[in-house]
Amino acid sequence: MFNNLPKRKIIHVDMDAFYASVEQMDNPELKGKPIAVGGGGKRGVVSAASYEARKFGVKSAMSGSLAAKLCPELIFVRPNFERYSEISKRIRAIFYDYTDLVEPLSLDEAYLDVTQNKKGNPSATLIAREIRERILTDIGLTASAGISINKFIAKVASDYNKPNGQKTVNPEEVLQFLEDLDIRKFYGIGKVTAEKMYQKGIFTGADLKQKSLEYLETNFGKSGAYYYYIVRGIHTSEVKPHRTRKSLAAERTFSENLSSEIFMLEKLKHIAAEVSKRLNKSNVAGKTVTLKIKYSDFSLQTRSKTLPYFISDKSIILETAKDLLYQEKLQNSVRLLGISLSNLNTEKPEKKPDKKSISVQLKFGF
Q1: Are 205 and 178 in contact (CB under 8 A)?
Q2: Per CATH, is 173-239 categorized as 1.10.10.60?
Q3: Predicted model pTM
Q4: What GO biological process terms does the UniProt entry carry, in alphabetical order (predicted)?
Q5: Are 332 and 299 in contact (CB under 8 A)?
């Protein structure tokens, strides 16, 4: 099985409730208590929640007011991103002791390719355990890890024994692991897609595997091929130390809901300027402008337009966002606006796997 695929040993390290854990580490009085990093009250949004708060159903992206209702004892803490960034750099320094093939996904998670590593250790499982122990000893935080033959399976596995655990999916275990997996656990399958799959009788990886490539592409568009291959353990994406940015965005949440497009245009002017600033700082440009609108009832809408040329100028970004704003009537008053640029000039098309390579080297030890 998978004989023609690259033989890799990939670790996905995911910090446990990172922002909240840093706050609890820095302030011992918060240890063991339900805390939410972010704003409370009517307009606030939860950025992260401690495991004590998660037991009550509090989670990231939830409104502060709802979080407080679910957990009356919830303690809100202002985010300190400089501190989180500082800790993140210390964690990555540990990663680089083992391999230079480190691909950060965010401040609190990263992929590591340890197929060839600086320690000369053939066991990715032991390396992951050692890294987690060092993060705990040197920094004082717990981390979870997933270990397998590619990034997709490692990412799924890292969530398996959270918090403060790890899961290795050996090559010979890959197919059974994926077949037994609830479709909601597949990285890349969101809530809406999962519901659609449920309606079509797809509940597990085994159900998904029964569907043909044609069926999946017909019912799920471009993502159909992705689902077809990942359930067969095929994900050829390499760990990229300098990961290519796929989009760049800025958004604003307003203290009061906006009902007038005139006021929204004023806000969009500042957001477009910020997006342009970030694009120019990164020396990139994009073709696709997406306007994000979150209404007062928390429903979300996006409107996109792809231009025939790359842009980074704030005036063109603003004009395109303006067109999108007037594209159709607003459904309600607005609490948040955002602009993103995608289809960047840094993107390279990912090579699709060859059907003939659908099979894993069983003797590749982990």
Answers
A1: yes
A2: no
A3: 0.73
A4: DNA repair; DNA-templated DNA replication; error-prone translesion synthesis; SOS response
A5: yes
Which of these is catalytic: 52, 103, 109, 274? 109
Q: What is the CATH number of domain 247-344?
A: 3.30.1490.100
Copy the structure tokens of residue 217.
């592409």
Q: What is the pLDDT of residue 351?
A: 53
| All residues at 6 or more sequence positions from 122 whose CB lies less than 8 Å from its CB, including other chains | 365
Give residue for tokens 């965005």. 249
Domain covering 18-81 assigned CATH 3.40.30.10 in the classification: no
Q: In the chain, which ranges are continuous DSSP H helix?
A: 18-26, 51-54, 64-70, 81-96, 124-134, 151-158, 174-180, 191-199, 205-209, 213-220, 223-230, 261-282, 314-325
Residues 11, 147: contact at Cβ < 8 Å?
yes
Give yes or no for residue 357 having a pLDDT over 80: no
Number of H helices, E strands in the chain: 13, 12
Residue list, annotated binding site for Mg(2+)? 14, 108
What is the pLDDT, as a whole number, of residue 361?
43
Domain locations in the chain? 18-81, 173-239, 247-344
Contacts of 366 (CB under 8 A, 6+ apart): 9, 123, 124, 125, 147, 148, 168, 170, 171
- On the question of a cis peptide bond just before residue 163, with omega within 30 degrees of 0, the verdict is yes
The angle formed by the CA atoms of residues 216, 111 and 84, to the nearest 5 degrees, is 120
Both structure tokens of 124:
């990715």
Q: Which residues are annotated as a binding site?
A: 14, 108
> Is there a catalytic annotation at residue 109?
yes
Position with higher pLDDT, 29 vs 38: 29
pLDDT digit string, tens, across residues 325-351: 999 889 899 999 999 999 998 765 555
For the chain, give the mean pLDDT. 90
Give residue 354's pLDDT. 54
Band of residue 282 on the pLDDT scale cut at 50, 70, 90: confident
